[in-house]
Amino acid sequence: IPAIREAGYEVGIVAEDAEMLPSYDYLLEDNSVIEIGRLRIHTIHNPGHTPGSMSFHVEGTPLLFTGDTLFPGGPGNTFNNANDFKTIITSIEDRMFSKFDAGTIVLPGHGDDTTIGAELPHLQDWVDRGW
Q1: DSSP bridge partners of 58
Q2: Counting beta carbons within 10 angstroms of the beta carbon of residue 33, is it exposed (0 to 12), middle (13 to 18) or buried (19 or more)?
Q3: Euclidean distance between CA atoms 24 and 106, whole angstroms
Q4: Half-sphere exposure (CA, 13 Å, Cβ side) for 18?
Q5: What residue ranges do the domains of the chain occupy?
Q6: Model pLDDT for residues 54-71, shown as the tens digit of each residue
Q7: Which of 127, 126, 77, 123 is nearest to 96 (CA)?
Q8: Cβ(114)–Cβ(106) under 8 Å?
Q9: Which pLDDT score, from 0 to 100, does residue 80 have?
Q10: Sign of the C-alpha dihedral, residues 107, 126, 120, 69?
Q11: Phi and psi at residue 28, in whole multiples of 5°?
């Protein structure tokens, strides 16, 4: 956090996850816009992995940064919590699959990238397998 501030930026976090950081400058909200230079980045609240999980869509691009919400092959870890699994599936379906077109590039917090079009056909498979 100090390095972020030293670089001239503020630290934002979602209220649901605020206790995870020792300090922050502002709370991020769903459907907010973060401006960094000429970039406009839209916030998307995607609970499931954590209560405050967020994804970020760069305006005017097909780029969707999903953190630990969506990966190639399925949703992120919900730590064997059935309620959180239902939450992450609903979040992916309602906040990603229904909002972004097939060509949207999904960039997870780690690992390989994918697209909405590559993952959407597998939603029911994920529900059936339960993770």
Answers
A1: 41
A2: exposed
A3: 27
A4: 11
A5: 29-129
A6: 999 999 999 999 999 999
A7: 123
A8: yes
A9: 86
A10: negative
A11: -85, 140
Identity of the amino acid at 83: N
Give residue 107's pLDDT: 99
Q: Please enumerate in sequence order all residues whose Cβ is within 8 A of that of 58, keeping only pairs 6 or more positions apart, or say none.
A: 39, 40, 41, 42, 65
Average pLDDT over residues 19-28: 92
- Model confidence at 29: pLDDT above 80: yes
Tens of pLDDT, residues 103-116: 999 999 999 999 99
Supply the pTM of this predicted model: 0.91
3-state secondary structure of 84: helix
Beta strands per DSSP E along 5-122? 12-14, 26-28, 33-36, 39-45, 54-58, 63-67, 70-71, 74-75, 105-108, 114-115
Domain 29-129 belongs to what topology?
Metallo-beta-lactamase; Chain A (3.60.15)
Question: Buried b vs exposed e over 104-122: b needs ≥16 C-beta within 10 Å?
Answer: bebbbeeeeebbbeebeee
In sequence order, what are the residues at sequence separation of 6 or more whose Cβ sits closer than 8 angstroms to the Cβ of residue 21?
1, 11, 13
Single-letter amino acid, residue 43 = T
